[in-house]
Fold this sequence. Notes:
Blueprint: E1 3-8, E2 11-16, H1 17-20, E3 25-30, H2 40-48, E4 55-56, E5 66-69, E6 86-89, E7 95-100, E8 104-110, E9 115-121, H3 123-127, H4 130-142, E10 149-153, E11 163-164, H5 166-175, E12 183-186, E13 189-192, H6 194-204, E14 212-214, E15 239-245
Parallel strand pairs: 4-7, 5-6, 10-14
Antiparallel strand pairs: 1-2, 2-3, 3-15, 6-9, 7-15, 8-9, 8-10, 11-13, 12-13
Helix pairs in contact: 4-6
Amino acid sequence: MGIIEKYNKGVLYYQFESFNKVAYINHLFTSRIGWNNENIPDKISSIFNVPKSNIVNVRQVHGAEMTVIDLKVEDFKDLSKKESDGLITNIPNLILTTSHADCVPIYFLDKRKKVVGLAHGGWRGTYKNITGKMIDTMKNIYNSEPEDILVGIGPSIGPCCYEVSKDLGEQFNKRYSRFKNIVQEKNNKVFLDLWRINYLQAIDKGIKSGNITLSKTCTSCKIDKFYSYRKEKDIKNRMVAAISLDKRMII
């Protein structure tokens, strides 16, 4: 199972087949076809059938800080000022969102406890083990069990295109010495595999390989369908990852 393309009223978006098998989940990853920074909230609201006021985001800072959203939060709009790169909730009808233009969107779902999470995994967040921290938070706050958690690693810059400095490659190899083949050298250039690192971070926390979906879709290779910050010279447009628990489907 992988990712699939869907069209809705002229917009293209992506979903994980594994997540689609869970009736009470809505999720997507936007594209450049039919979407722009201005219309994203309206279109997500329409596709999810949830008010725009229920769309939640935070101020992303390329870190690994987790934000747990529960009923103690009085004003969800205030969360947009909070610095964080991970969102988690068990509240239905809240749409968690993160913005991307090469960084990895990572989706999480505890099927048994009905908890969803979303992470923005740039190289800094990946270096700080954002996927592992998300899973730890789900375990600590919601008593999630690894065998119940699905992980989806969405479209982002791939190891085919993500060239980094030799020093950064060495830092990753040193920090994750137990992870194999996360840095590749080709033609005297160094390439970092953020997909594999986040995958192995999930495995390291006990997630079954069969519960992890790798989209293996490179935003830099496919600028006909995605925006790429690196390929398109600091482009301002972004894709958005979104996930929510569907209140109508939860029993």
